[in-house]
Specification:
Elements lengths: L4 H13 L3 H4 L6 E5 L4 H6 L10 E4 L17 E5 H10 L4 H17 L3 H11 L5
Parallel strand pairs: 1-3
Antiparallel strand pairs: 2-3
């Protein structure tokens, strides 16, 4: 049986727990949402036709760009899309835990405004880098 949304969320939260404390300290207000797929509006905004092309998304403003004028805006969110994650897991050679951690760290990296190299280093530090 395929893991449900609660199982994906548990794996994602475990990935957060493995991050260095300096990163975890700034994630308390970030909302984690597990959805089957991205909605049509999101896919259109990203120029994607196939909902299986998107396994995760950060929506919000990176920490370094926030200001007092942000009052009243939606909270920062990390969206994980269950069905694309499961398909990628079934096609790939890594564990679901490794895949979810990889996507989570990538989206968390956007929250912090990190480069791809910095995201990879964070994955290594958290012990979540894909093989």
């Amino acid at each position: 049986m395929a893991p449900d949304a609660a199982a994906i969320e548990r794996i994602a939260r475990e990935a957060i727990d493995r991050l260095p404390a300096a990163f975890r300290a700034h994630l308390g207000n970030v909302v984690l949402r597990i959805e089957e797929f991205a909605d049509d509006e999101t896919l259109d905004a990203l120029g994607l036709e196939d909902p299986f092309q998107l396994s995760g998304l950060y929506s919000g403003r990176p920490i370094g760009t926030k200001s007092i004028d942000d009052s009243g805006t939606l909270p920062d969110m990390i969206h994980l899309y269950r069905r694309p994650l499961l398909d990628e897991w079934a096609e790939g050679g890594e564990t679901l835990e490794t895949l979810v951690a990889h996507v989570m760290i990538h989206e968390i990296g956007h929250h912090f405004g990190l480069s791809d190299d910095q995201m990879h280093a964070l994955e290594q530090e958290a012990g979540s880098a894909p093989e």
